[in-house]
Write a structure and sequence with these properties.
Belongs to the glycosyl hydrolase 9 (cellulase E) family. It is built from 16 helices and 17 strands. It has 556 residues and is an alpha+beta fold. It has a domain of 206 residues: Glycosyltransferase, CATH 1.50.10.10.
Length: 556
C-alpha cells in the first residue's frame, strides 16, 4: 500500500511543533499560530522571511489548561503580528514551522478547486478534466422504485411499479449514492456564494446541474405520493472500493419519498428561483412551481419519515426524526422567493420547534433551522420581527466567538459530547454563521473569526494536518473514495486539489467501521489519512460546499 500507516505518536513526532495555517494568512486579518511545548513559561519566537531576515519578534502565551482537552497537548498561542505580503516561517527554539504566504488573494485558488470538486463529482456525464477523464457513469435515466422483501419491510404499504429519470446531480461522497437531503443543503450553500460574487457563471452552471437533478427526484403527477421527493437513489448493494463509476454493476433503485426530502427540495428550489430569476426567469419560474408543489405535498404527508436502515442496502439512510426545522427552512425560502403571505404565516409556528438554530455543534442536513434564519436575516428585512431574527443571529455568532476564544487552535467547535463524523464540515458551517453575521451587521470581529477558523482546517490543529488536498505541506492526500481511488488502484486518479477530508471523529458510529487506533484518543487526534477510513477521511459535497462559501468570503 502506498500511503503511510498512521499512529498519533508518529504523526506528532514528524510534524513541526509550530502549527500554522500552511496556506497562509490574509493581510489585515489576525495571524496566529500554536506551539506545542511542555514549558509553562512564555517562550520567545521569531517570524522570518524566506531570505531568513527576522521581521517580527514575540513571546508566546502559554495556554492555561494543560493538557488542552481537545488535543491532549500542552500548547502556547503565538501572535504573529501584522505581516506584509511575502513568504515566511515561524521559529520557536529549535522548532520551525512550515512556510506560509501572506497575500490578498490567498484563497482564490482554493475557491476555484473546491468548486471544481463538484464538477468531478457529476453523475451521468463524461468527465474530460485532465487527469480525471472517465466515461459517463450511472445514467439513471430509468431507475425503478425499490421492490422486494427488504423494501417491503423498510417501507410497509408503499408500492410504485414505475421507473424514473433521475439522471444528473452530484455523487454525494465516496460512494455513488445521490441523496436529496444532503444534495439540497449543498446546492443551497453554493447558491449562497452568489450573495458574495453575483452571477458567477461557474457557480450558476454547477448549481443548475444539481437543481435539475432535484427536479427529477420529484414524483410526477399521477404517481403515488405525487409532488413529494424520492429520498435517495443508489445501488441496492454497495459497489466495491475502489470502483470506476461507469464500471459499477450494482442495480440502481429509488427509495420511498420522505417528508424531509420533499421539504429540502422545496427549500433548495425556492432558493434557486430567488438567486437565478434575473438570469433566467423561465427557469426560475419552473423552480418556484416545483418548490410550491413540494411544500403542498409535504403538508399532505407531514410525517413520512426516512427510516434508519443502518446503511445495509447500498447507501446511507440520511434519516431525521424532527420535521419542524425542515418545514421552517422550506417556508422561509419560499417566502423569500415569492413574498407570498401564505408562507410568511407559516414562519412563527415553524420556528417554534425548540431546536437552537445556532447550536455550536454546527448545523447539518438533519438540523436546518440555521439555513432558514441565515437567509431571513440577510434577505428578509421586510419580514415582521426581522430585528429579532438579526438579534438571534448575532447572539449565535457571539457564542461562537466566545467558543473560538477558548480554543488555542482557533476553531469555533469543541462539543463536549465528542467530535462528530464530518467535523470539518461542522467547523465550516459555524464559519458560515460567523460570515453571515458579518454580512448582516458589518462587524469586523465576525469576519476576523472566519479567517481564524480557516487556520484550523489548513494546518493549525493538533495533528498539523491541512485537511484540503493540494493546500499545505502536510495535506490530506489519501481520502476514502471510490472514484479517486489511486491508493488502492494506481490506474485511478488521486483525490483532486480542493477536496476536503471529513476530519476528526471521536464518536464511533454504529454499523460503520471505527479504527481501534483511535479509541481513547483526544478528539483532534481521531483522524486517519488513509483510504479505508470512512468515518474520518471520506469526502462529501455537504462539506465541500461550505468550503467554497468560506473561501469565497475570504476572497471577496
Amino acid at each position: 500500500m502506498s500511503w503511510p500507516r498512521w499512529s498519533s505518536d508518529e504523526v506528532l513526532a514528524r510534524r513541526p511543533r509550530v502549527r500554522v495555517n500552511q496556506l497562509g494568512y490574509l493581510p489585515g486579518r489576525p495571524m496566529r499560530a500554536t506551539l506545542v511545548a511542555e514549558h509553562v513559561d512564555p517562550l520567545p519566537f521569531v517570524v522570518v522571511r524566506a531570505d531568513e531576515r527576522v521581521v517580527h519578534r514575540g513571546v508566546s502565551e502559554p495556554w492555561p489548561v494543560r493538557p488542552e482537552p481537545t488535543s491532549g497537548l500542552p500548547v502556547h498561542v503565538l501572535d504573529l503580528g501584522d505581516l506584509p505580503a511575502g513568504t515566511y516561517s515561524v521559529a520557536a527554539g529549535s522548532s520551525r514551522s512550515h512556510p506560509f504566504s501572506v497575500e490578498d488573494r490567498l484563497y482564490a485558488g482554493l475557491r476555484t478547486d473546491a468548486l471544481r470538486f463538484f464538477s468531478l463529482m457529476r453523475s451521468g456525464t463524461e468527465i474530460a478534466a485532465p487527469g480525471y477523464e472517465r466515461p459517463a457513469g450511472h445514467p439513471d435515466t430509468s431507475v425503478p422504485a425499490w421492490t422486494g422483501p427488504d423494501a417491503e419491510r423498510l417501507y410497509p404499504g408503499w408500492h410504485d411499479d414505475a421507473a424514473y429519470d433521475v439522471s444528473g446531480g452530484w455523487y454525494d461522497a465516496g460512494d455513488y449514492g445521490k441523496y436529496v437531503t444532503s444534495g439540497a443543503i449543498a446546492v443551497w450553500q453554493l447558491l449562497g456564494t452568489l450573495d458574495l460574487t453575483p452571477d458567477d457563471p461557474a457557480v450558476v452552471d454547477e448549481c443548475r446541474w444539481q437543481l435539475d437533478w432535484l427536479l427529477r427526484m420529484q414524483v410526477p403527477p399521477g404517481r403515488p405520493l405525487a409532488g413529494m421527493a424520492f429520498h435517495r437513489v443508489h445501488g441496492s448493494t454497495w459497489p466495491p472500493l475502489p470502483c470506476w463509476p461507469h464500471l459499477d454493476a450494482t442495480e440502481r433503485v429509488l427509495h420511498r419519498p420522505s417528508t424531509t426530502a420533499t421539504l429540502h427540495l422545496a427549500a433548495a428550489a425556492a432558493a434557486g428561483a430567488r438567486h437565478l430569476r434575473r438570469l433566467d426567469p423561465a427557469y426560475a419560474a419552473r423552480l418556484e412551481r416545483a418548490a410550491r408543489s413540494a411544500f403542498d405535498a409535504a403538508r399532505s404527508a407531514p410525517a413520512l419519515l426516512a427510516p434508519d436502515d443502518h446503511a445495509r442496502h447500498g447507501g446511507g439512510p440520511y434519516h431525521d426524526d424532527v420535521i419542524a426545522d425542515d418545514r421552517a427552512w422550506a417556508a422561509s425560502e419560499l417566502w423569500l422567493a415569492t413574498g407570498d403571505s401564505a408562507y410568511e404565516s407559516e414562519l412563527p409556528r415553524a420556528h417554534e420547534h425548540g431546536r437552537d438554530p445556532f447550536d455550536p455543534a454546527g448545523f447539518d442536513f438533519d438540523a436546518v433551522a440555521a439555513p432558514a434564519q441565515l437567509d431571513l436575516a440577510l434577505h428578509g428585512s421586510a419580514l415582521t420581527g426581522h430585528d429579532q431574527i438579526v438579534d438571534r443571529l448575532r447572539a449565535g455568532a457571539d457564542r461562537l466567538l466566545a467558543l473560538q476564544a477558548d480554543q488555542p487552535w482557533g476553531q469555533p467547535y469543541a462539543p463536549a459530547s465528542g467530535w462528530a463524523w464530518g467535523s470539518n464540515g461542522r467547523v465550516l458551517n459555524n464559519l458560515v454563521v460567523l460570515g453571515m453575521a458579518h454580512l448582516v451587521t458589518g462587524e469586523r470581529s465576525y469576519a476576523d473569526a472566519v479567517a481564524i477558523g480557516a487556520d484550523y482546517l489548513l494546518g493549525r490543529n493538533a495533528l498539523g494536518q491541512s485537511y484540503v488536498t493540494g493546500y499545505g505541506t502536510d495535506d490530506s492526500r489519501h481520502q476514502r473514495t471510490r472514484q479517486f481511488g489511486h491508493d488502492l488502484d494506481p490506474a485511478m486518479p488521486p483525490p483532486p486539489p480542493g477536496a476536503l477530508a471529513g476530519g476528526a471523529n471521536s464518536v464511533p458510529v454504529p454499523d460503520f467501521p471505527y479504527d481501534d487506533r483511535l479509541r481513547g484518543l483526544p478528539p483532534q487526534l481521531c483522524y486517519l489519512d488513509e483510504p479505508t477510513s470512512e468515518v474520518t477521511n471520506d469526502v462529501c459535497i455537504r462539506w465541500n460546499a461550505p468550503l467554497v462559501w468560506v473561501a469565497t468570503f475570504l476572497t471577496a
